[in-house]
Design a protein that fits this description.
CATH superfamily of the largest domain: Cupredoxins -  blue copper proteins
Distance between the termini: 37 Å
CATH class of the largest domain: Mainly Beta
Oligomer: single chain
Mean pLDDT: 86
Radius of gyration: 25 Å
CATH architecture of the largest domain: Sandwich
Number of strands: 10
Helix content: 25-40%
CATH topology of the largest domain: Immunoglobulin-like
Number of helices: 4
């Protein structure tokens, strides 16, 4: 809607680069419109009460005030509007983002990425050409195997470990991220994608998005995670299909951890 676009500009909304983000932005605008109506309505009522019961017009204080059902009707209308926003918009939108049954299915061919947070960096693993991750188990944990990967598992042979703090995805393709942490609670946040999800040690928490605009976006941690919290930033590159395949081939051919041209 053109009106919503003008409101977004007025409110300085950050750039939007994901499919589901528009619904989130629209929902925020609906809430602010309701807040605006409430502000104008109750402030007008406040001014009316001051004028109606001014001392010159009411030398003796009234102990009953305004008589009528206007206030009751207004409160009921506000409650109905809030229920509509909550049940009709907020809950379905939240379910779409977090309900695993609403995630992209295999027929959509989503790109699956495992994201591991640590103080104070982001680590990204890709399943490689076979589309399957190697097994992980704490018994494999070692100083040179901090992600506890079973290196004897054939599926782990082509897994891709991107350079630290570098995430690359193709544009207009569903992406599912499985989030975990090595140490404390973190929060994976990419503002232009309208993605925010807590990352908890011991859990593998899924989230998903579809980036709709090529570009470079910042990944931040939205959970206070220690004295280096402010430095916990990563880069997310959204590339064309051809450029993504080129990057994937390049990173596969190089040793893990080798810097790429996108850094």
């Amino acid at each position: 809607m053109e009106l919503f676009d003008k409101i977004k500009t007025l409110m300085s909304f950050p750039p939007l680069a994901s499919e589901h983000g528009k619904q989130m932005d629209d929902f925020i605008i609906y809430i602010h419109l309701l807040m605006g109506v409430l502000f104008v309505g109750w402030f007008a009522y406040f001014l009316y009460a001051i004028f109606r019961f001014r001392k010159s017009n009411n030398p003796k204080a009234s102990y009953t005030g305004v008589q009528g059902h206007f206030s009751t009707y207004a409160e009921v209308a506000v409650a109905i509007a809030e229920v509509i926003l909550l049940v009709g918009l907020a809950i379905p939108l939240w379910a779409k983002v977090v309900d695993a049954e609403k995630f992209p299915s295999e027929k959509d061919k989503p790109l699956v990425i495992r994201v591991t947070a640590q103080q104070f960096a982001w680590n990204f693993r890709y399943p490689g050409k076979d589309g399957a991750f190697g097994k992980q188990d704490m018994k494999f944990f070692a100083p040179d195997n901090r992600f506890a990967i079973d290196k004897n598992d054939p599926n782990s042979k082509d897994d891709i470990e991107a350079p630290t703090n570098l995430m690359v995805v193709p544009v207009n393709r569903d992406v599912i991220v499985h989030l975990s942490a090595l140490d404390v609670i973190h929060c994976f946040k990419v503002v232009p994608l309208r993605v925010t999800q807590d990352v908890i040690p011991g859990l593998m928490i899924p989230s998903h998005f579809k980036a709709t605009k090529e570009g470079k976006y910042m990944i931040t941690c939205a959970q206070l995670c220690g004295n280096g919290h402010a430095t916990m930033r990563g880069n997310l590159y959204v590339l064309s299909k051809a450029d993504y395949e080129k990057w994937e081939a390049d990173i596969t051919a190089k040793a893990k951890g080798t810097a790429t041209s996108f850094e």
